[in-house]
Every structure is written in C-alpha cells, then in structure tokens.
Amino acid sequence: MEYTVALRVGVLPSILMTGTLFGLMHGYQLGWSWGFVSLLILVGIIFTFARAWTGTVLASFLLHLGYNFMIALTSIIATKGFTHMPSGH
Question: How far apart are CA 47 and CA 63, in angstroms?
Fold first, then answer.
C-alpha cells in the first residue's frame, strides 16, 4: 500500500514559505541583489496572503498584474519612453 504524506504546517508558515520561494524564483533575473530579492519576497508574501484570505488565485493574479503594470509604467515615465536609458554605472 502506498501512502501520500502531506506536511501540514499551517497557513502562516505556508504563506511565508510560498512568498519566500516567489522572491527567490526572481533572484536570477534581479542579479541576486538581495535588496530587490527581499522586496520580491515581501511582495510574494502579500500576494500569497491575498490568495489565502480571499480563497481564490484571482486576487493574487490581479495584485501581480497591478504590480507589474506599475513597474512598467514607472519605467516608461522615468526613461521618457525608453529614449533616455541610465548609463548602468
């Protein structure tokens, strides 16, 4: 007989773990800059909390969509439509 074992750790630890994994998943694209990775961990915790609180992934999807939209919008504004890019120094 084969058993499937599920580790039950509770809602709060699950939110923290999922949010941390979300941030770490973005680590490579952020150049492992731990300030940015930490921010994404916090964002992931917020997204996961929204999912747990509402009981639907739609809430976290909409938050993620809005977050990415704000990043895109501020990037467009800050670079004047990507015509004045920072030097990267």
Answer: 7
Asked whether residue 82 carries a pLDDT value surpassing 80, the answer given is yes
Contact partners, residue 44, CB within 8 Å, separation at least 6: 18, 19, 20, 21, 22, 23
How far apart are alpha carbons 14 and 41 in whole angstroms? 13
Q: Does pTM surpass 0.85?
A: no
Question: Cα–chain-centroid distance for residue 85?
Answer: 25
Q: What is the mean pLDDT of the chain?
A: 90
Q: Does residue 3 or residue 13 have the better pLDDT?
A: 13
Q: Which residues contact 21 (CB under 8 A, 6 or more apart)?
A: 44
